[in-house]
Design a protein that fits this description.
By secondary structure, the protein is α+β, with helices and mostly antiparallel strands. The protein contains seven helices and six strands, in the order H-H-H-E-E-H-E-H-E-E-H-H-E. The N and C termini lie far apart (49 Å).
Length: 191
């Protein structure tokens, strides 16, 4: 698919012009950060290079959903929601660290490893990626596998981290971040 055909592609979620513009801004900011040169001649080169690169690479950053009926821009997330999500995730990291600390420091160690399986279906493919990485980033949990049918296999170090997975808070936040509908169901838990 060429950049000219993208304007008429109705399966793209969002505005391609807005996507390309935001990509050009991100590329120019990165270029400016690396070069540090603010002379007009170099700024002009940076703007032109960013615009041309955004125009050429935009089709590569479109990812289809599982059914192939929609295409999502890889970087198409609301920046304000991303900031809120990162603050929320940081708070979850603090809580998970405290849970693991309590489980390991007490004289009677409360480590109770489990493997939790749940199905998480979201239309936006990046919601699954974000969820799997957020789970692994959180202390006490590791995403072991994500199957094509949306079944997540997660190792939880404590009963508290396993119950947090089963409540579905992180699953809901990942769908909220990418503004996509989702389904969530617990499949099982192995002790």
């Amino acid at each position: 698919m060429t950049a000219f055909q993208i304007r008429h592609d109705k399966s793209i979620v969002g505005s391609p012009a807005l996507h390309m513009s935001s990509l050009a801004v991100i590329l120019f900011a990165f270029w400016l950060l690396l070069s540090g040169n603010t002379e007009i001649k170099f700024l002009t080169y940076g703007v032109l290079t960013s615009l041309i690169t955004a125009w050429i690479t935009y089709p590569l950053l479109l990812i289809p959903n599982e059914t192939g009926t929609r295409k999502y821009f890889l970087l198409g997330v609301n920046p304000l929601k991303l900031v809120f999500y990162l603050f929320w995730l940081f708070w979850q990291l603090v809580l998970a660290n405290l849970d693991v600390l309590r489980a390991t420091v007490r004289p009677e160690i409360e480590i109770d490893p489990r493997v939790v399986r749940f199905r998480y279906q979201a239309d936006h493919p990046m919601a699954k990626v974000c969820l799997a990485n957020s789970i692994t980033l959180t202390p006490g949990t590791v995403t072991i596998d994500v199957a094509e049918d949306g079944v997540f296999t997660v190792h939880a170090l404590t009963a508290g981290s396993a119950s947090g997975l089963k409540e579905g808070g992180m699953q809901k936040k990942a769908a909220w971040l990418f503004e996509t509908p989702y389904t969530f169901e617990i499949i099982g838990e192995d002790f």
